[in-house]
Amino acid sequence: TAKETARKSTKAKSADTSSITYSKAQIKQSIVKHLHSTLGTDENKANNHAWWKATSAAMQELVLERLRTTQKTHYINDTRAVHYFSAEFLMGRLLSNNMHNFNLFETADAALKELGVELTDVLEEEPDMALGNGGLGRLAACFLDSLATMDLPAIGYGIHYEHGLFRQEIKNGAQIERPDSWRHYGNPWEICRPESIQEVPLFGYVETKYGANGRVKKEWHPGNIVKGVPWDIPIVGYGAKTVNVLRLWQSESSDYFNWDVFNSGGYVDAQRENIQAETISKVLYPNDETRAGKELRLIQQYFFCACSLKDIIRRYKRAHGDDWSRFSEQVVIQLNDTHPAIAIPELMRILVDRVELDWDTAWGICTKTFAYTNHTLLPEALERWPVRMIEKILPRHIEIIYEINHRFLSLVEKKWPGNNVIKAKLSIIEESTEKMVRMGNLSVVGSFAVNGVAEIHSKLVKENLFPEFEALWPGKLKNVTNGITPRRWLKACNPLLSELIGKKIGNDWPSDLTRLNKLSEFADNTTFQNQFMKVKQKNKEALAAEIKHLTGISVDTKAIFDIQIKRLHEYKRQHLNLIHIMALYKRLLEDPSYDMHPRVFIFGAKAAPGYTLAKDIIFAINKVADKINNDPRVNHIIKVVFLPNYRVSLAEKMIPAADVSQQISTAGKEASGTGNMKLALNGAITIGTLDGANIEIAEEVGDDNIFIFGMTVDEVTELSKKGYNPFDIYYHNNEVKAVLDWLDTDYFTPGQPGALSSLKNSMLSGGDPYMCLADYESYSEANRALNIAYRDKSRWAKMAILNTAKMGKFTSDRSIADYVERIWKLTPCTVE
Ligand code: CBF
Fold first, then answer.
1. What is the pTM of this model?
2. Cα distance from N-terminal residue to C-terminal residue, the chain
3. What is the residue range of 255's domain?
4. Which residue of 129, 319, 454, 612 is 20 to 30 Å from 606, comparing CA positions?
5. Digit-coded pLDDT (tens) for 64-79
6. How far apart are CA 495 and CA 653, in angstroms?
7. Dist. CA 804 → ligand 1 center (Å)
8. Which run of H or E residues covers position 477?
9. Which reactions are catalysed by this chain (predicted)?
């Protein structure tokens, strides 16, 4: 089974980590050496940043040695490899992760101590590599960790954004975006590989030529050529045997620099082209779940796909020359969402125009090479590009897309003769006022497998999004439930809990998470319950200190720490959480003896800069927080905290301290979620809807250990069909009415009545598209039940332990084992 594959391929490794013998003295010596000869400073002058760089350089020395052996082994064995194409990789920090994976964390800690330096301070110096928006990018990062851990030959391909996701500041309650400069002062992990630079054509026109044999030949004359410079980030697996690579492309102007303009004195004009080329990898589009629809975004997508394909082909040809028959045996390309879908026509272009294979052979290779993961059903996230835009930027690709579509529609005609409705629905080209290319349809047609990311989501992909594709190609649509790496999301981020678990059940769990299940045996044991909750308490104290440091707010660590961390989006319903907090506030004002355990509501979320309502919700959370936190009538019972600049490294501090995990999306909208898994793994109890992976979490932990509320997917569909009117609830539920009306006053925004009205409007006249009000009553009930459960210390401890114990399924090692078994058909390659 998939689980066994995961276990087998990682089993040896957990024992092997101990074989990495690198002493404290050696680490110390290496750090000092780098301080001196890499950074040109010394122990007396070095600040924490310099220590971070020197320590990273010392680690990188080990990493590169393993990288070399890995690459050599893969080359000698001519391994089949997965190539993970993703516009986003949300890596976070690497030093602590690499130390853990080398099993050198404690040794390095001791070495630095002897040098008079605190490792925890040094780790704080590392900027997050925030080359992603949220779940999709972080999933890619977890997958890279698991692939290396499981000794699977893999390479991640993406964009070397100069600026990752913006840094969020909060000014007077509102989000302000500041540029992120993750490599401003140099990044010790990346290696530039100028020897593997690629050139990428853009714009121009296509010439049709007729060969002597009557064969039509297409020649693309690009109007512009940019250079793709690869930067490699080594990816260290747990146990540090396999070190794979994440290759990120940076754009530069090509050598076709405009020398004529330059020589005739137009120095500045000649630079313009440089700047345009460099713009391609300048910045990550900060949208989660919405298409950007911008020319530059399409160019970014094509840019990294074209570079990556050339890179793959170069490597393939080194081993197989011009024998293309084995290409799809050696190469599998996973498309992380439709963002890299343009790789499909690009590979066709290479095979047909350059290699001169006939169409059918080329298409055969393509459709055995690509696989596609769908991450969302939200219509606004399904990419469609105007035909005219593709025509302009990629004139040859649009011809190829039309040809793919033409051949595909003949297949549809065979299956459903004369059915133009189905044809219009399945067509890759959408015949709207402005013709569009549907990247989802292109991805399904051009791939041999398509998967959703949780059981319910995959079911909906099959039944609602692509039902005809399922009929056309039964079995092509699959499920692979997401997962998270337990190395980062438990071992490294929660050392106290990891230690406790280790003492109780041994230290094999990071490479076989199902072993956590052994903790269930101790769920009723009072001593273990106390130990478990003591760790939670310590983690809460650490977070409380961080909250104080970041916001100045003091919180009671005996209160329930209730956490909602994720991108700000209406479907995730942070505003449902907020109106419920307001209702609690109101209950307390009206009845000071209202029975509730003190609770700190903690949020972390970035809103896309152009998403006004999302920013309004952040503003509202902060304004309500100001009022409640400063109201002596209630602030010993409720506190509300919005932690600015939510990112991977902040998540690592928040997650271990959570008592409650808010996973409250409208059923059917959250494809999977992965924060839900991280929080539960660290012993937080979920209050959530039956959406995405929450359903599978509920199955694992059992109904007694989760607070499920709200409508199911079917009930949501039913209600939409019937016609949902939020005013029905507004007029029948006094609490809902009072809270929404409160938003119209200036109670939370003194002197500015109406400053929070957009929230009320969205939930009333705006039609409440995500049905907050419909789920309100049930949410409020679930919160009551949660409050009662928390009062019973032993019951809560048992629930928390069982949440940790039952998370085995959600390791990304299991997800990867599923991909291997159901899609990639890879074999592990041990690196000696
Ligand atoms: O599959 C990973 C995650 O991807 C998203 O973040 C996405 O960008 N579409 C989804 O919203 C998450 O549900 C999912 O866990």
1. 0.97
2. 26
3. 78-93+128-482+816-824
4. 454
5. 999 999 999 999 999 9
6. 11
7. 22
8. strand 477-479
9. [(1->4)-alpha-D-glucosyl](n) + phosphate = [(1->4)-alpha-D-glucosyl](n-1) + alpha-D-glucose 1-phosphate
